[in-house]
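Technical annex, item 7. During the second reporting period the consortium partners agreed on a shared format for inverse folding records so that results from different sites could be compared directly. Each record opens with the tokenized structure and is followed by the designed sequence. A conforming record, contributed by the partner at site C, is shown below for reference.
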């Protein structure tokens, strides 16, 4: 049964019982519906209030903005360089400004997004472990800058850093990536698996 009808019949039990015994639902018992100016159906409540389903859907959409899924947090140790910690602090300051601006503008979408991102970066700051820059370059370790030569003669240089500061396109590699894990503890002249091929370490700094 249509939920509008079910709700109305619960409010009119005696009339519903009488109509059920007669084997039909008289037209006079159907809750009145009216058409909105936009052409959509609306329900007229017993107190005369008209509720539009389009309005309810709009409110549902706004509520969804308030419940954005949390950004996933890595289960790995949150190792960062000194620059990485500075990046986290910069993000928090930027998001605090965005959140304040969204509050002033009463922008619910921007409020939800900035609040969600603030929770992520504040959590990352609370678990960040700053690792000092390496003092020797005989073996690859966190913070090392490593140059490799692939089988196809491509030469690439990466610095091994924290997850949030990693950007391979800019020459930084997450310490939990497969290539970084393969490089840890290796020396110049050693070979490692790099994707589908091997690569030789030619420099460590």
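Designed sequence (site C submission):
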């Amino acid at each position: 049964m249509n939920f509008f009808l079910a709700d109305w019949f619960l409010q009119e039990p005696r009339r519903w019982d009488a109509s059920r015994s007669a084997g039909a639902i008289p037209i006079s018992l159907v809750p009145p519906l009216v058409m909105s100016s936009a052409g959509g159906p609306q329900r007229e409540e017993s107190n005369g209030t008209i509720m539009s389903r389009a309005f309810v859907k709009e409110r549902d959409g706004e509520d969804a903005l308030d419940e954005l899924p949390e950004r996933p947090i890595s289960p790995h140790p949150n190792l960062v360089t000194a620059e990485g910690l500075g990046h986290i602090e910069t993000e928090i300051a930027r998001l605090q400004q965005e959140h304040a601006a969204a509050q002033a503008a009463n922008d619910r979408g921007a409020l939800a997004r900035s609040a969600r991102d603030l929770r992520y970066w504040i959590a990352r700051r609370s678990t960040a472990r700053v690792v000092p820059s390496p003092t020797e370059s005989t073996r690859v370790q966190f913070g090392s800058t490593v140059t490799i030569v692939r089988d196809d003669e491509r030469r690439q240089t990466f610095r091994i850093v924290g997850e949030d500061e990693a950007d391979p396109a800019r020459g930084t590699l997450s310490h939990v990536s497969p290539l970084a894990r393969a490089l840890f503890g290796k020396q110049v002249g050693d070979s490692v698996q790099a994707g589908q091929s091997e690569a030789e370490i030619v420099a460590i700094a």
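The first strand starts at residue 33 and ends at 35. Residues 1-62 have pLDDT under 50 and may be disordered. All partners now use this format for quarterly exchanges.
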